[in-house]
Each structure stands twice: as structure tokens, then as C-alpha cells.
Automatic annotation (TrEMBL):
Residue span(s) of domain HTH myb-type: 16-80, 81-135
Domain Myb-like: 16-80, 81-131
Subcellular location: Nucleus
Gene Ontology molecular function: DNA binding
Highest taxon, organism lineage: Eukaryota
Protein name in the entry: Uncharacterized protein
Entry keyword Repeat: yes
Xref: Pfam families: Myb_DNA-binding
Listed GO CC annotations: nucleus
Xref: CDD domains: SANT
DNA sequence: AAGACACGCAACCGCAAACAA
DNA sequence: ATTGTTTGCGGTTGCGTGTCT
């Protein structure tokens, strides 16, 4: 199987109607994240189409995310989802994986379902790269020693015990700026773990609701602007206008 | 310093199940 | 009941990076 090694850019006119493959660029991540955060998922194929660039109150459809729905789903599930744990798998989790694999077999999605914040892909990769190897090594050693047992070897030192969990280098770092129509607003920046983003938005939402109630309790006409941008790639003053952004509050 | 090698992980593919028309 | 579409899953590939020689 041949996979293109390069970042799949966005807005590449030469490849205008081709479906993109390969690594996701931060810009694509931003669009997908924003799309799903605002509008949720009806079907994954529609997510890919709707995640166009939103600019100056217009949906610029020639910047559609040219990804398959399948690819969007995979990216969201394995990487962008806010509830994902970003720290390395701990010793305790490794024991859980071993135990669940023993009872469930290679049903990685079933195993992942029992491990909040972990994805099937992550668990599968972990199993294939470390545990299976360790078991094989233990098996080989046992056979050399005349012992046919293939029980997993006890885990060696756990790197996660020693060092604080690093943020994966490839994970996009999002910033967010929220402004109201009167020019006031808040902004924050953080890693794309999503938790910080979500909690901040939720807090703002709560205060927003109370403000709305205080001013009559009806639908506020106040304009809100919300943007997620990758601080490594975009200038901090990039601002994306989101028509109907108030709807997004209902999602979170 | 540079090439070889090993490893981790993101993302692809094919297939099957679920669902809609 | 049939057909087409979408989603979800597991296996696999190959790039990027760190380590070794």
C-alpha cells in the first residue's frame, strides 16, 4: 500500500477535486475540530463537505475539506476528540490492556470502550509495539529455559512514572478568542487537548446564560466570534467569524 | 558526521455490519 | 427482499525520529 508521505495541504487548486490522503495539516485539524464543535456530526461524509473555511461571514466552499468521511471520523476519534487522554499509557493501564486482551481477544474497540480516553488504535498500536513484543521475548526466553509458559513478562520500568506527561509534539496547539458585539471578550490559549477549550467555553456559556437571563431571558442578539487557530502556524490576530455561533453553545 | 537500524504512531485499506431508500 | 451508502473495526503499512555503529 502506498501512502503519500507529505502533509495534505488545503486549498491546493491543482488537486481541486481529489480526495486528500496522508497526514492531516493543522489547518485541516482546525476546520474539522471547529465544524464538529459547532455542528456536531450528522454523517461523516457531510462533515467533510461542511468543514469549509468560514471567513468574513461567508462560507467559502472552495476550501472544503477534501477528505473522506472515513478519514474525518478516524481523525476525530483518534486525535481531535476532546476527551482523549494525551499522556502515555500507564503501567496500570497496561495491566488493564493485558487483562482485557486475554478475555476479549483482539477486539480493540471493545477494550477501548472499557478504557476511557483511550482509542482502539492507540491500544492496538501499544499492544503490537510493546506488549506482544515483550511477550514474544518472554516466550523465547522461556523456551530457551525449557519453560513453555507464554504469560506476559512483568512490565519493566514505566517511563510514565518518571517523567511528566509530555504533550505530543504533533498535536496542534489551539488558541481561542471570544468576542462579543460590544468589543469585550476573552481569549485563551492552550494545547489542543480540548478539555481546556471546552471548559473555558462552558464557563463562558454559563455566564452568558445568566447575562441573557438578567437582560430579559430571551435570545440574545449579541454577536459572538469564536476561533480556533494553531498558534504554531497562524498569526494570533487571525479571527474567524462564525455565523450562528450562538448555536454552538447548545452543543457543548 | 553519516548511514543503518529500530521503534512508535498516524493513517490507510478491505471487509462486514448497520442502516436507508 | 434488494440494493446502495455509511459507519466501524482490525490488520497493515510506511513515515518520522531517535539510537547505534
Amino acid at each position: 500500500m502506498a501512502r503519500k508521505p507529505i502533509h495534505a495541504g488545503v486549498g491546493d487548486e491543482g488537486e481541486a477535486n481529489k480526495e486528500r490522503k496522508g497526514l492531516w495539516s493543522p489547518e485541516e485539524d482546525e476546520r474539522l475540530f471547529t465544524q464538529i464543535t459547532y455542528h456536531g456530526v450528522s454523517t461523516w461524509s457531510s462533515v467533510a463537505q461542511l468543514a469549509g473555511k468560514i471567513l468574513n461571514f461567508e462560507l467559502v466552499t472552495d476550501f472544503w475539506l477534501r477528505r473522506s468521511g472515513k478519514s474525518c471520523r478516524l481523525r476525530w476519534m483518534n486525535y481531535l476528540r476532546p476527551d482523549l487522554k494525551k499522556e502515555p499509557i500507564s503501567k496500570r493501564e497496561e495491566e488493564t490492556i493485558i487483562s482485557l486482551q486475554r478475555s476479549l481477544g483482539n477486539r480493540w474497540s471493545a477494550i477501548a470502550a472499557r478504557m476511557p480516553g483511550r482509542t482502539d488504535n492507540e491500544i492496538k498500536n501499544y499492544w503490537n509495539s510493546r506488549i506482544r513484543k515483550r511477550r514474544n521475548a518472554a516466550g523465547n526466553k522461556a523456551s530457551r529455559d525449557g519453560d513453555s509458559s507464554t504469560e506476559p513478562a512483568p512490565a519493566e520500568e514505566d517511563p510514565t512514572d518518571a517523567a511528566p506527561a509530555p504533550i505530543p509534539s504533533r498535536f496542534p496547539v489551539f488558541g481561542c478568542q471570544l468576542l462579543d458585539g460590544a468589543g469585550g471578550g476573552i481569549s485563551f490559549a492552550g494545547s489542543g487537548s480540548g478539555e481546556s477549550i471546552q471548559s473555558t467555553i462552558t464557563q463562558q456559556n454559563a455566564s452568558d446564560e445568566s447575562e441573557a437571563e438578567a437582560s430579559g431571558g430571551g435570545q440574545s442578539n449579541m454577536l459572538h466570534f469564536l476561533s480556533f487557530f494553531d498558534q504554531d502556524y497562524y498569526p494570533a490576530d487571525l479571527l474567524v467569524d462564525v455565523p450562528g455561533a450562538m448555536d454552538a453553545w447548545e452543543i457543548i
